[in-house]
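Tutorial handout. Part one gives the primary structure; part two gives the three-dimensional structure as tokens.
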Amino acid sequence: MADTETTTYTSNVSSSLKQSILDTITNIAPTDCVFYNTIGKGKAKAKLEEWEEDTLQDAANNKQLEGGDVTAGTVTYPTRSSNYTQVSYKVFKISDTFEKVDKVGRKSEIAYQTGRHMAMLKRDMEYDLLNTTASSAGDATNGRASCGAKGFITDNLYSFSNTTATTNLLTEDLFNDEMVAAWEDGGEPTVVITPMDQKRLITEFNGNNKLTVTEGGDAKKIINSVDVYEGDAGSVTVKASRFISADDTNYQWLLFIDKEMWDILFLLPIKTEKLARLGPATKVMIHTEYTLRCKSDKANAAIKYLYDGG
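Part two.
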């Protein structure tokens, strides 16, 4: 044994072995930005975007005296809403040497990082579009903030009074009540955005035992998912979001979205720029300035402080 260790040249002692590495890069980080992809896109013209909302008086019995003098009724005025634009960017820097040498899974590091940072910027936008609760003008040390969906939906908002109760559970009745609330105000929500925990609860809805299950052509395939829920107030597509944050560790939101009532307005469209060189390296910035417009809060609905099951 001693002779083998000292005279046999083995892989354990050699420094001449080539590395074996897969020439691809695996990245499964999610990029499915459901809110960003669902709503409209437009252009902003100022860093404070404003718009007006109006409504009609409640319908009532309207019988008048024949030939009587008429009196003008009260005229109501539209209300003005607004949102500040938000500057968002991602910046990376690649040395000339690293751009030139052979690399695993990509030829150009600048091209690879451009795509990677573009995806990260879109994820950041999705997070802010959903979760930011207030608009802000910013100051010398803080950037402007664009209010997100959670901040806009305040009228048809069901909030559990106990924010730490494990009994704050989504039920089919509660789900339908909020859909109806938006419908009664004139809205037509078509999309529900919520974490996967709540989507799984929607799958379990079985009101009047009328749950429709679609069977796959393959006898070995079981489909147990609800992607479209049809209730008295209409049909909604149910989409799970990885980017809608919890208010606390175990307490989540569910949003009913009338997609015709929302727009992302770009003051500066998403753009990639190479910045000035200060040495043998390339600095790249991907940037945009945008805001969220909610044309009517009442057309939407939300439920907050839903327990996720721990």
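Part three, for discussion. The chain is about 20% helix and 25% strand. The chain has a mean pLDDT of 89.
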